[in-house]
Amino acid sequence: MSNSPDDAAGAPDEAHLSASEKLLFGGELAYDAGWTQHNHAWLKLSLKTMALSLPQQIAVAVRLAHQADRGALYTVAASEIGRGVAQAASLVMVNSLLVELLSEGAMEERLRSAMPSIIAVGLLAVVGSVLSSVSAAATGILEPKTQRVATERYLSLVARVELEAVEDDDFHRLMDSAQYGADSARRMLVYCAAVVTAAISLVAAGGVLTVLHWALLPMLIAMAAPRAWSALAMTRHRYTSFHRFIQHVRASQLISRLLIDQQAAGEIRVHDVGPFLLKHFRGMALTSEREQTRLARIGVRITLGADAAAGLATLTTYAALGLLLWQGQMALAVAGTAVFAIRTGAASITDLVGRVTDVQGEALFVADLETLCEEAARRAIPAGGRDLPQTVEEIRFDKVTFTYPGADAPSLCEVDLVVPRGKTVALVGRNGSGKSTLVKLLCGLRAPDSGHVLWGGVSTAEADRAQVFDRLAMVAQDFYRWPFTARVNIGIGRPAAPMDDAALAPAAAYAGADEVVASLPRGLDTLLARGYKGGHEISGGMWQKVGLCRARHRKGQVLIVDEPTSALDPVAEQRVFDQIHRLSGEGQTTVLITHRLHSVRDADYIYVLDQGRVAEHGTFADLMDPATGTGAFRDAYELQAAQFRAPSPSVPGQPGPGTDVTGTKATSDGAASS
Ligand SMILES: Nc1ncnc2c1ncn2[C@@H]1O[C@H](COP(=O)(O)OP(=O)(O)OP(=O)(O)O)[C@@H](O)[C@H]1O
Known about the structure:
674 residues, alpha/beta, Rossmann fold, six-stranded mixed beta sheet, four-stranded antiparallel beta sheet, 12 strands, disordered C terminus, binds adenosine-5'-triphosphate, nucleotide-binding, AAA+_ATPase, transmembrane, Type_1_exporter, transmembrane helix
């Protein structure tokens, strides 16, 4: 058996991998998640580190509980301290009870003089039970409140962080790990209460034993130490095993899910994949079984060893007590109290070790929660800033350069661009040319490394970002499909406004979302989430209509539409573009990103991006005119138009469908898709 934590934690441990895992996953199937870092951290903790960090960890849980419900926290603390004191007093009373009972004289007389101690012991037992119930009730109140306070705290902080933090893998890992922190804080409270009781009880037993005879305290430690060690060792082994075992469980669960997966069903049958997967499922299940057998064997060895050592220590202790009695160095009553105190103390030590281990396990996650909150506060979008002018006449990019963290090359380089109020500006360019990145900077979701994004002369780096967001309505390429009703999916464009039918009707008529709603079984109240009762799935094109409708409902001064029609049929697509251009006539400022070059004919201005730079810009006429355009846009446009006109891509001599300068391909209906 290995006792080395490093060894026990095991870097990917080849010996424990099944052949199935090696074949199917190329190694162990481990999550790339934040909490997995604790596998090693916990096991590397020495007893000293555990003891030193304990007060700090308890302080975190207590602080959260204090915020949640001060009264309940004080009640738990008072009752747990009261319980410990009652146990201590009970030990003292047992001593005087035994002294009275074992003294010289008639039994009746001895009983009478012992009566106050008997009553006191009884009363203390009642007080202990009552305090235990009070503590349990107060903990029951405190637990959910603490969890809520901890959850609300981190969620509210995380919801305000910069987009850069959300897209940062390290921050993501921290979020992933910290989400368990609220649950851990809740459990930690119960464990902390148990630690307090066990500690007071232990101090009481130790104190009583020291008073009775100096040699009894070391004897107590000798008796309890093996059991405490075995509790700790077993907890560590179980923890290590859990993480080793969970890899196999996860792998076999994945296989069982695949066997009943809808998408895989056809291939499983046609290619006869079923028996192959079942064979490997069995391989992994057998590995899990072996791991559990190994753990059971370790458990037997540890328990046997600890019990033997504890038994020997007990024998020595009682022999020593007998010797002290025999030599007249200890009265019988004192020996009786000593036995009682030793038993109480031994139980307290085992309890204390178990609960401290529990606290430590949970504390790692609570510490993550704390780190996340600090990190989220540090990376929050600053509140306040410079006011934007009442009317923003233009949004201007002034020599803007931006590189994503960790990227080798900039995604935007020295970009100059103007979006005048009430105009439609189209952004076109190949895949990866920087269009979506430009929009993120325009929205203030990212800050330029150099240069400025100016809203009416105010840089987004200094502006009150809430005011920037307030003026924006956006349908991003990957706009969110909320797993809520159609009503909320539209109304969430303006979450604070009413979401009744009348409020949503004008926006619903936009882009044909009203037709989508009419086709739903419960209209606006249809749940747009598959897998739930009453949940309904709509097509990608229908979702796009809902997304456009949501942006319309927001009534932002600047509308940003990123590939708004990629999933729409030709009729719906034409309708959307017509509406976008009509909006421009109504004074709406629009930034349109699209690969459908025919749809930007009516845009007031077109910017062609290439590798993060503005390759050319101008009106449609400018860009198409060989005298003014560089040809970048014109060539792409001609290519799309030619594909549209081509009778058949297979006709010899005709240009077949291929990738053009905008990174698009012609589809059978003539529309280009990325
Ligand atoms: N979050 C990110 N982290 C790192 N690099 C990114 C990130 N998002 C985009 N990029 C990179 O920035 C460059 C520009 O990407 P962007 O999404 O802005 O292009 P695009 O013109 O919108 O492309 P598409 O037409 O395919 O939507 C690409 O090289 C892309 O790989």
